[in-house]
Every structure is written in structure tokens, then in C-alpha cells.
Specification:
Elements lengths: L1 E2 L18 E8 L5 E5 L3 E7 L4 E3 L12 E6 L12 E5 L4 E8 L12 E4 L11
Parallel strand pairs: 6-7
Antiparallel strand pairs: 1-2, 2-8, 3-6, 3-9, 4-5, 4-8
Length: about 130
């Protein structure tokens, strides 16, 4: 996961980047099965497949409406069991996905403002939050 470790300053070279926003981008690999991504509240994200086709807009524009939530991404052809309840379940057309976005902060605190990911059924995140 690419995650800015500090807020941007005037020397940061990012087109239209804000100095009070946490940005993130990562590739998700579904070749080993479904993957759960925990999207924090106040996020504005995009999720595309490897052909840059739209998959979902987790966060404020998506089904969680900015409240945050667990998204369960299911690879093509997967026939195994899936966790039920409490997930926004999305079947994808490719086994690799691109997730990017920005997290809006409460009280200028970036703690827990980036997504975490884990294998379906796992309690431990494989992609730690900042």
C-alpha cells in the first residue's frame, strides 16, 4: 500500500493534492480467494479492476455512505463458502484490483484513516493501517 506518511507540504508534487488529507493507493490480489477490506469512515475511494473497469466506490459515494464498512471482494469463478452478514459483497471480473482514495480527518487526527485488508475468514489484517 502506498500511503503518505505525513501531510503534504508545498514541495510535494501531487496534482491537486490537499495538505490536510491522507491519500492511499494499493493493489489487491484475489488469486488466493476472497479478500475483506475494512474501509474507515469518511473515506472517498475508487475500486477498479485491472482493465480499469469500475467495480465500486467504497466510502462516501458507495453503499456505506461514509460510515465505513467491510467490503468482501470475490474473485471470478470462486465457488467456495463466503462469510455472511455485515459485508458489502462484490464479485469482480479480474483477480487483481486497484483501490485508491482519500480519507477525511476528524479533529486533524490521521489515526485509523486508511483501509486494512485481510483474507476472508481471517481476524488479522495483512495490510496494516497507518
Amino acid at each position: 500500500m502506498l500511503l503518505f506518511s505525513e501531510f503534504m507540504d508545498p514541495e510535494t508534487l501531487v496534482l491537486t493534492g490537499n495538505a490536510d488529507t491522507v491519500y492511499f493507493v494499493t493493489f489487491l490480489d484475489l488469486t488466493e480467494g476472497p479478500l475483506v477490506v475494512d474501509v474507515p469512515p469518511l473515506s472517498l475511494c475508487f475500486l477498479n479492476d485491472m482493465w480499469y473497469r469500475w467495480v465500486a466506490d467504497p466510502g462516501m459515494a458507495g453503499p456505506d455512505r461514509g460510515a465505513g464498512g467491510k467490503y468482501l471482494f470475490v474473485p471470478p469463478g470462486y465457488q467456495g463458502p463466503l462469510q455472511e452478514g455485515g459485508y458489502f459483497t462484490l464479485r469482480t471480473r479480474t483477480t487483481r484490483l486497484l483501490l485508491g482514495g482519500r480519507a477525511f480527518l476528524e479533529d486533524d487526527d490521521p489515526t485509523n484513516s486508511t483501509p486494512t485488508a485481510s483474507r476472508s475468514g481471517s481476524e488479522r489484517p495483512t495490510c496494516p493501517a497507518a
